[in-house]
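Hi R.,

Here's the chain you asked about this morning:
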Amino acid sequence: MDLFAFKAAEQKKKDAPLADRMRPETLDEFAGQAEVVGHGSALRGFLERDEIPSMIFWGPPGVGKTTLARLIARTTKSRFVAMSAVASGVAELRKVVAEAEDRLKLHGERAIVFIDEIHRWNKSQQDAFLPYVEDGTVCLIGATTENPSFEINTALLSRCKVFVLTKLADEEIEALLERALADERRGFGATAVKVEDGVLKFIAGVADGDARAALGALELAVKAGLAEAIGGVVRLSKDGVAKIVRRSHLLYDKNGEEHFNIISALHKSLRGSDADAALYWLGRMLQAGEDPLYVARRMVRFAAEDVGLADPMALVIANAAFQAAHQVGMPECDVILAEAAAYLARAPKSNALYVGYGKVKKDIAEAPNDPVPEHLRNAPTKLMKDLGYGKDYIYTHDAPDAKQEFLPSRLRGKKYLEHK
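And here is the predicted structure, written out as tokens:
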């Protein structure tokens, strides 16, 4: 790189958004995801052994999927090639693979090919990647916000390790914001910023686990404050930051507060048997560009949680709507989801199953290893039979009126389903 190119690269870093500048440079800086990247995790083990499999990162926006892929490439001294499934096709993929093959042969340099939004690639595009993953030409890291079981070809998915990344806790977001305010090289450490109590907590709450959105909101607030700085000090108040954030996209994108307000309105309209309101809130979400599969998944859950045993067919219809929406896509699937919403709204309601299963989970949490009563135990061997396994079990078809207990002794007589 010549001097001019170096200076241009350095300037580009300075001009980059705060979220890009604050990307962690080591795994220890990585926020959250302890089960994925923490000490003793499977991914750490792969890195320590320098055995990186192809993998899929599944999680909501702003939780570090791209950043983690870059860190893996840096840790393993691999060449990092980023592609977007939205903008790239098979031709570009083959070009990238050809270059990776040459580098591997000539310099022994491995390549990690990162494909953002891999779920947007169709079957033939995903199949084109398969042979290169199989022969080790490249290591694939795909990022997706959608369930890989539905969106990634079975053959490709079977050759990848799936890691689930969850949205960050508010405390983790606050820690990121504090680091950005203190970092003189990448953040606002060289700027005098005085933050009112509760401001960072407010930003973290609005961001709802999305680190990129939170850092973007902080950057907007600081830059706006620079114009009004008194004595060179930028002061961030909760009210002032709230106004700035509301003027940005943060409260109106698909992962912000308004998103959750509207899905809440849809859910409560369905529960309240108001089909007209349900159709309206459904339309608001779909017309705003919401992922139809997200809405469909929520309706599947609603069918079991709020309709339940009052109309078991509701779950069948909601699941059929999900499958149809998956096959048809927008905009044609809007009427399909509308039909399901109207059915769910008009269906009789019962939360008995939801409440009952909640009690089940509570009892299991209190004693997760209650022994199975001996008469219910499997007894495939003589030893087990001699130990009493299966003894005194009554075959219900032979004696339908016979009384016997099926719960652990601690829960004997417990009722989970009090009514339909």
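One quick note: The CA atoms of residues 20 and 212 lie 8 Å apart.

Cheers,
M.
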